[in-house]
Amino acid sequence: MTHFHIPIPANATALSDCPALARRAGVGHVLVKVESGRPFGNFKILGGMTAALRALARITGLPVAQLQMRRDLPRLICASDGNHGLAVAAAANLAGAPATIYLHHSVPRARADRIQTLGASIHWVAGTYDDAVDAAVEAAGVDGVLVPDTSSDVNDPIVRDVMSGYATMTDEINVQLAASGNTISHQFIQAGVGGLAAAMAEGLPEARLAIVEPKQAACVAPALAAGRVVRIEGALHTCAEMLACGEASAAALAILARHNPLLVPVSEAALLQAAEIMREVDIHTTPSGSAGLAGLLHVASSGHLKELAGLTRSSTILLVATEAHPDAFTRSLDIELSAARNFAAHFFPEMGLPDGAPSTLNA
Asked: What is the pLDDT of residues 324-338, one digit of tens each?
């Protein structure tokens, strides 16, 4: 695996050229955006943290830099499989606001512990991620500010802020591609509720989009087929824990429908294998983080799907390794919070950014 040594935005995560993955897939290049370098080790900080801070600023009428001057900030509330809740908890910590994160019982205890370390409280919900979403919506209706990454309202402003934050990634990629002289022909992007895939589709419109979902928790494909949000019933158990969603985001669907994506459901075995293959090229991620690779290898193994996708030996593929593997995550809370604060200052310049302060944590 090699990294492009090019002038890129100071807070950009690495875009890595992985020839071993390209050989496996029978394509020209595979580029991997490695999001383990973000504060807290995943891409959700781009959306959840920035959207939560914007929400508090709108409600109070204060600049983000002055939020900590208030002692009566409203409680931030969200549902999560883990990472979105971590990002919202980070926003609450930076602003000095209380936060409650609604988690379903399948969320690993270690993910809940990281959220609690930031000072947020956890409310456990029986059932699936979608049950946690319902519970968070109900709670916010009584007291608090909901910071969702999904909604049945196509115009939900906070969901749109979340996707706008994700678009930071495509801004970085476009700069990195221009500096390296590369172009992308295809992007294989994993989907939970579809927000990341929608942001990638809008930010990289020339690249053919393939949406990759676990077969056991695929909600975007049936929603696109129906032309509306539909809820998938069942336990939604999958090793790709961050993609275990039964209802897609309406705002994301509206965008994805315009891009006519290739829909790629993948098996549990393929998801697990993709994480192992990523590890072989020194990208330590989870089945959720490597789902795009699972989709690429599935398509590459089928003559029919290869033809449908337009994959050739000259294709250049973009993947996103969306999170660090928990076993590879060793940074301290103080380091993470410092990086998150500095990262937020790039979005909200009034916060001020110390000279040389890091807002990514690439090795």
From this structure: 998 887 888 889 999
